[in-house]
Amino acid sequence: METLDAIRTRKSIRRFNPTPVPQEDIVAMLEAATMAPSGANRQPWRFIVVKSEQRKREMVACIKKSCFELKSLLRGVVENPEETAEALKKRFRLVSLFFGSAPVVFVVLMEREDSPFLKCYTNQGMDELEAFRQFGYVNILSVSAAIENLLLAAHDLGYGACWMNIPFVAKDSLEMLFDVEDPWELLAMIPVGKPSHNPRSPPRKRVEDVTLTIDD
């Protein structure tokens, strides 16, 4: 598959058939991921390959438990925490649990930024978020490039995949499940398998609507 064709035709897949993914295809996807560019060539990524059905059930359980804890987190933040929590739980279940049916799930880890340049900001008492705004989200950008490479490689090999932002509601419990320790943290999950549906591609903004060209 040509590169531009892969970019144009790739889409997020959330339903999979149970056909196992051969190890050689898993390795090919990981090799593509590790060819991504990274700041100072630090390659701040690691990948956990989950094929175990038991471990996937444990991951689903972590997310369900975190959804049930939403109500207490919302107290004092919204007018009706029970109603809002219920709506959010339904939403989280819809968008967060489908990975359990994928034959393989890549759990993507990122090394926390520890650049001396970033420390120059935080050592002066600057809030970490503001420091990142000044310095740049180097490791997040690097790992995101690796994820995109993995998605394109999966598509090229005939698989469907979806880039999930963990989900963040269960970040802490999932990190405990996988014994993730500092300086590493969980950044994303990518379920991969042969697709069992062919969803329509979502509309994209026109290039001219998102582009500013400066000629001189």
Summarize the structure.
This protein is of the alpha+beta class and 216 residues long. It has nine helices and four strands, in the order ααβαααβαααβαβ.
List keywords for this structure.
four-stranded antiparallel sheet; NADH Oxidase; globular; alpha+beta; 45% helix; 216 residues
Architecture overview:
The structure is a single chain. With 216 residues, this protein is α+β, with helices and mostly antiparallel strands. The protein has a single domain, classed as NADH Oxidase (3-Layer(aba) Sandwich). It contains 9 helices and 4 strands, in the order ααβαααβαααβαβ. The protein has a 4-stranded antiparallel sheet, with helices on both faces. The radius of gyration is 19 Å and the shape is globular. The two termini are 37 Å apart.
Element order: H for helix, E for strand: HHEHHHEHHHEHE
Side by side, the strands of the main sheet go 1-2-4-3
- How much is the average pLDDT? 87
Corresponding CATH architecture: 3-Layer(aba) Sandwich
Q: How large is the count of helical segments?
A: 9
Radius of gyration: 19 Å
Secondary structure class reads: alpha+beta
- What proportion of the residues is helical, as a percent range? 40-55%
CATH topology: NADH Oxidase
User: How large a portion of the residues is in β-strands, by DSSP E?
Assistant: 5-15%
- Major beta sheet summary: 4 strands, antiparallel
Report how far apart the termini are: 37 Å
The CATH class is identified as: Alpha Beta
Number of domains: 1
Q: What is the count of β-strands?
A: 4
Shape: globular
Uncertain segments: none
CATH superfamily: NADH Oxidase
